[in-house]
């Protein structure tokens, strides 16, 4: 069984819920912020950990993150196929001993290009995805690739966009799961971004076909890695 861990009520599975339904892939959604207990990593086949407005260092304010960290540690120990998106990727990097910077100079917002490294082009997670592809960014924090990890993607603004650790644990900084509704919601969060909501939506709409194609392919690739396709 695939599980999805949602860390924030306003950071849902989005378009990936639709894609999983279309692909007829069953999954179970967990909400640890509602004190929902997570399973042992040995009990599941693969895991996706979503993002959130909080950061990896906010465990005192969001104590449920300790349980999420415990699950990720078990996933690594079990060699579980794992995909950490934004906060999920930052939690993975942090757990592996890599720095995660709060309000880093590498923050990004909007529909922006990402470029695969040579290792990224050869990695099964990005099979069939162009070396430069468009995706959605919404992060203030950023991770460093942990020791022993492999850098898979970068952008002009943020050098560490994706990494693999071991054979099948992935952390990505960008958001392949968002839809138009999520873009509109996130852009309304702050006084800084709310006036730009129209711009964020127009850019997302303009690139929607390419964005959706790359996002769908990335999920399909992860499911194939996890032998759930």
Question: With helices defined by DSSP (H or I, 4 residues minimum), what is the helix count?
Answer: 7
Q: Classify the secondary structure makeup into a structural class.
A: alpha/beta
- Give the number of DSSP strands: 11
What proportion strand?
A: 15-25%
Quaternary organization: single chain
- Could you tell me the radius of gyration in angstroms? 16 Å
In whole angstroms, the N-to-C terminal distance is 12 Å
Tell me what you see in this structure.
There is one protein chain. The protein has helices at 15-22, 64-77, 87-95, 118-122, 180-187, 197-206, 208-225; strands spanning 2-5, 27-30, 46-49, 82-85, 100-101, 108-116, 132-139, 142-143, 150-154, 162-165, 169-172. With 229 residues, the protein is α/β, with parallel strands linked by helices. β10 (162-165) and β11 (169-172) form a beta hairpin. The longest helix is centred in the C-terminal third of the chain and has 18 residues, at 208-225. The chain is globular and about 45 Å long.
């Amino acid at each position: 069984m695939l599980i999805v861990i949602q860390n924030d009520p306003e950071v849902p599975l989005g378009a990936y819920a639709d894609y999983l339904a279309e692909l007829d892939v069953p999954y179970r959604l967990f909400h640890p912020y509602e004190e929902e207990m997570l399973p042992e990593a040995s009990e599941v086949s693969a895991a996706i950990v979503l993002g959130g407005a909080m950061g990896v260092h906010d465990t005192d304010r969001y104590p449920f993150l300790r349980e999420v960290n415990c699950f990720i540690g078990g996933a690594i120990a079990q060699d579980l196929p794992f995909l950490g998106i934004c906060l999920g990727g930052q939690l993975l990097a942090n757990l592996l001993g890599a720095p995660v910077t709060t309000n880093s100079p590498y923050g990004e917002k909007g529909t922006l290009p990402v470029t695969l490294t040579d290792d990224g082009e050869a990695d099964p997670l990005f099979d069939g995805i162009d070396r430069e592809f468009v995706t959605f960014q919404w992060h203030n924090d950023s991770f460093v690739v942990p020791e022993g990890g492999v850098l898979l993607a970068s952008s002009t603004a943020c050098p560490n966009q994706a990494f693999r650790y071991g054979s099948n644990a992935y952390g990505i900084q960008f958001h392949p799961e968002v839809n138009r509704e999520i873009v509109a919601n996130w852009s309304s969060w702050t006084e800084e971004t709310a006036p730009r909501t129209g711009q964020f939506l127009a850019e997302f709409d303009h690139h929607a076909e390419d964005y959706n194609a790359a996002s769908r392919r990335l999920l399909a690739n992860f499911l194939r890695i996890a032998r759930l396709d």
